[in-house]
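The freezer alarm interrupted the setup, so I double-checked each line after restarting. Inputs confirmed:
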Amino acid sequence: MSGGFHIVVCGSLVPDPLQTLEPVQGPNGPGLKNEGMLPSVLDPWAGHSLFEAANLAKQVPGSKVWLVSLGPKPKLQQLMMTVAQKVPFELVVVDGNAGGFTESMEVAAALAGAINAIQGLDPSRLLLFGGCASASRDAGATMQILGEMLGIDEMFLGVDELKVQADGGLHVLERIEGGKYLASVCAGPPAMLGWATGNLPEPPNNPQVGMLNMRGIMPALQRAQAVKVGAGTLQFDAVQVPTQRRETRVVKDVPVEEIAQEIVEWLKG
Amino acid sequence: MDVDIVCAGFGPAMGGFLTTLSKELVDADGQPKLESGVMPGLPLQVLCYERADDVGFGVSGVVSRARGIRDSFPDLDPSDIPMAHEVTEERMLYLLDPVGIRNRSWNLKAADRTVRALKFMLDYDRDAVALPFIPGFLKKEPGLVFSIGQFNQWVSSRLMESGMVQLWPGTPIHEPLIEDQQVVGVRLMDQGTDAKGEPEAGFMPGMDIRARLTVVGDGPVGSVGQALDRHFGLPEGHHQREWAVGMKMLVDLPEGCPLQPGTVFHTLGYPEPEIFGFLYVHPGGVASLGIFVPTWFDSPTRTAYRYMQHWMRHPYLWRYLEGGTLRSWGAKTLQESGRQGEPHLVGDGYARIGEGSGSTNVLTGSGVDEAWTTGVLLAEAVAALWREGKPMTRENLRATYVRRRRESWVEQEGRVAEHARNGFQRGFLRGLIGMAMAGWTGGQFYVPGRSRPPHARVKSLEDYYRGIIPEPRLAEIRSEAARSGSSLHDVVMKECGWPEIPYDGKLLISQQDALLVGGKVQAPAGYKDHVVFLYPQICERCENKVCIEMCSAQAITPGEDGGVPDFEREKCVHCGVCLWNCSQAGLDDPEHGAIRFESGAGGLHSAEN
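Predicted 3D structure, all chains:
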């Protein structure tokens, strides 16, 4: 690929794993109780796509990575403290609701606006990355809609591997049912890839990467455009999380069969 | 990597330091007032590394007079900080034993009987009596109740917005870099290792961050502070022998609970006389509550979690809590030696602030505001030195930071408190009398008491429960625990008459559920275990494994054949109690136990505590 790829990763924040999520009905629609106080992480699928993007950019000279995040600015600022030491990227912030109850079309439109406004972005070299089911805590259709809005024809979902062929073509493995992969080849960018987990481990924290990234992050946050994304015309009749009951305890030297039997009895009540 | 200032740990002290320093870095036009030595033309390059996975994780609800904090933020509106509220009502409660436990001391039983006999004269209610007044030195009005986690996040957000400093959570520091008795920076932890620290796939050696000044604010059990103490020792006559663990919960109070935001309870007398409790009410029907378990509670089966549940079930408190829901849970070690535990505050290339610098006031039970203020004082000193182009030597830091600190209210009040708790070395009542004497005489009089290393205090199971549980039964209990791989305290407490905890799945839950539901404890892979049993031969022969009993997260459990305990990093909340809950003297350092608590990644994932 001459000149390298322009890789735009769409990803935003989600509540940190293990947080207790309690849906509540607010004046602006449904939301999560105390969400402002819950710690957040980069959506894991988007995180994988970011790591894959950075790895690809490292392999293909001239490539560049942007992270486009739609979320509340203060929470994104907080999130950057834990993300920015991982891999080099340039941040683009869209200041808006990422509460998980937004309509995919509205989210995609906001992201498309932000991506189109990136100076120096060459659409012919564009690889649009994101989580396979998320770009910003949405219903899972956003990446496809966004791809269409950006005029991208080649779209892949549930991607675990991307290889650049000698002729510049993209060889893509997508997850399909039965633990199998669908292997596809396209001529090259532009393309949209909604990543599953990929194959890369989470990179270690690198202080030098952090210092480099942080120089651009605060200006990006200051430049953030506010957008209004909501539920559109959707009506949420009811929102609930699965009920759960925990009775955890520590046991040692108990045969697995015995533990399994006890769990069965417990489930039976 | 070279920077101007590297900071270890982000807590209230570092918040005070960075908030103050960041205002001195550039002028109104954005031009550097304090110019970087490593990036000429730019302001000072200041980096702060925090061990926990995010700032504000793993700390707790607090009540504070907040004098230093208000000085830094003169226009502070508590409603700007989630969970903060002015103190509106303060009660000090003596809790009587409502259960009839067998091991309550005779003088406490007598005190309970006296109170019950005179209850018609007292402010008595549901096995508790409210003290008619709160001594001025303990009173927190006018002050604030707040969540340190939320406060730290609020402070960090303002710092990030300033763009003047960089905060990096999730980045544990392994140790300070010391060259020719000068601290020249820090070394970060290796990443991509196994539990023993051996390189695995993705290994990345810990990077050296070199700086003209290393600011150490990593708390009472921080790796950098500990390493400095090991290397430089403590000043003559100082010791760090008094500790406590604060175990705390954040609870959604039940609907209709009459407690108003800003209400503060301090409790004493129950579940054990050595254990003090607290309850602070935040806005929105939420309360922080918990207990402190100190070093001078000599039980070899001391535990915090189960005692906290019994404390919550006390009738005076339970009427407010019944029907509530656990929202968050955590634990933290407190350095309770106060000024007696003050390390060398400065040296060539480094300065210490906050709790690890001995700033906690053990008489007033206040540490956050003091910690914040030490950070402010250091920032003022550093800015002055940098402006004058002076190096960060021991002499210059002494002439500026230490001098400011000695002249501050933190020091003056710390001196009043210095010996206030010595009486607890000789018992609960003498301890209370000593505190009152010190508080009312400005520290001139107190009840003396000889401090001992924590391991030297712990009695054997047989000695501690003599006359309460027969020795043959204790032997059976030991065998049962060894067979089942469990701690002793549950069985021992049952023998003493403590009732079972009726789990309700919401507030009264198992300790493991508290880890998951409350602490949301997580640990990233690729880091070395941070709890190290230094001398296996000592663990092999140890019969009082207080480390197992006291572990806040049940991360330390009996090892094979009762030998060296097992440690599971994935459960650890990094409270650090294992550091001071070893009942054996270390071979190389008899002042300390046989466990080392090092820097590590992961832990609590809640910023609400």
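Quick read of the result. The radius of gyration of chain A is 20 Å.
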